[in-house]
Amino acid sequence: MNVLERLLLSGTVEECEPLTPRMRRVRIAGPALRGLDWVPGQHVRLKVGDVLSTRAVLSGFRDVLRSYSVWRYDPAGALDVCVLDHEAAGPGARWGRQAAAGQRVMLTRPEGRLVLRDGSPYHLFAGDETAAPAFGAMLRTLPEGERVFGAVAVADERPPVPRSGELTWVSRDETPDGPAGVVRELPLPAEPGTAYVAGEAAICRDVLRHLVRERGWPRAAVRVKAFWSPGKKGMD
């Protein structure tokens, strides 16, 4: 066993289910996944390639591990991740296509800072479909009384995100300004809340710039996580 595998948890694919034409939910279960310290919005990193291959070593293991937000977690020992498929499929997308019940999976413990801020006067979610799993997990835990705003760009069907009616869904192809343009028009309260911005790097940049420069939000009130950027390897 190599050093990397000593640091990873072991599980088995239990079931797979399409959530949209391009997004597939994969449930991973096993004794090692019991009682993990997970906060909604955090992600795990899956081993999607051979850590002993020459390509993996030369890339600094960039093509071996891929990060996926946890869609749902069961402390009894199971978690769901959602894998987005696309034409220029990298190692992560190919793994998602081939995942099947009974397949062994290695993954890290949950980590990440894209989590809800307690005591926020309201919550703003902005991003694209790659952020939907993290947003879904966070929205699922918010009490009904908490105020929610949001804008999410999708290429096809919207994922089954909780409280989706409180978010504005836009077509990636038909909305040139994307989520940033929608957020600019949202009737947000005068005081800043907390924004959770995730997905394509350009979307994250534009929404952050609007909130800080145009609305005067403090930078600390905006939590940003870029998941991918066109043409950039290692982020699919």
TrEMBL record:
Domain of life per record: Bacteria
A Pfam match: FAD_binding_9
Entries under InterPro entries matching the protein: FAD-bd_FR_type, FNR_nucleotide-bd, Riboflavin_synthase-like_b-brl, SIP_FAD-bd, SIP_fam, SIP_rossman_dom
GO MF terms, alphabetically ordered: oxidoreductase activity
Domain (FAD-binding FR-type): residue spans on this chain: 6-117
Xref: PROSITE patterns: FAD_FR
Gene3D superfamilies per UniProt: Nucleotide-binding domain of ferredoxin-NADP reductase (FNR) module, Translation factors
PANTHER family reported in the protein's UniProt record: FERRIC REDUCTASE, NADPH-DEPENDENT (PTHR30157), NADPH-DEPENDENT FERRIC-CHELATE REDUCTASE (PTHR30157:SF0)
Protein name: NADPH-dependent ferric siderophore reductase
UniProt organism field: Sphaerisporangium rubeum
